[in-house]
Amino acid sequence: MLRSLAPGMIALALFGGGDRAGLAWSRADDPELGAQLVLAGPGTDDARLLLACQPGSGAVEVTVVGRREDGAILELRSGKLRNRYAGAGAPDAQIDGAFDVRARLAAADPVLARFADTGELAVILGERRTATPNGFAPAHDFLQVCGLPPAG
Fold it and tell me: Is pTM beyond 0.85 here?
């Protein structure tokens, strides 16, 4: 299950397509779980994507909820930049048929950096593509929190 989100959150992720209508980015930081950037329907727990990190760690965990047949190769695109990431998938403990796919990326990953600069991000898992709404401000702030502190 996506760490701090409620069990009912994944119905949209499992059965939704590429339509971004009604989706919005929000920060869901938690002192115990760290910084989180969540793509979900407004006022609901129907999340499609979770980015999480421990502040200053330099690493981001990306979690997408899908189905076993989607596989565990996650593709992220921002503008003309794209990359594929080998993820690890596991059955969701609370929702029958759901499969959580997680990939660990550097906070300075070029696709994430472009997402922070432009707000553009598309997520492809198996045959499903999710074009996200512009997330410039929350993505920029989130990735600043996740990044390594400047050497001094």
Answer: no
Q: Name the nearest CA neighbour of 53 among 142, 150, 151.
A: 142
Query: Measuring CA to CA, which residue among 93, 114, 126, 116 is closest to residue 37?
Result: 116
**pLDDT tens for residues 104-150?**
999 999 999 999 999 999 999 999 898 899 999 999 999 999 998 76
Burial 48-78 (b: 16+ CB within 10 A, else e): bbbbbbeeebebbbbbbbbbeebebebebbb
Token look-up 């938690």 returns 30
Give me the domains of the chain, ranges plus CATH numbers. Answer: 7-146 (2.60.40)
* Residue 148 to residue 122: CA distance in whole angstroms: 25
Burial of residue 46 (CB within 10 Å: 0-12, 13-18, 19+) is buried
- CA nearest to 144, candidates 104, 120, 112, 122: 112
Instruction: State how far the Cα of 24 lies from the Cα of 34, in Å rounded to an integer.
Output: 20
Two tokens at 23?
A: 């989706």
Beta-bridge partners for 99: 66, 91
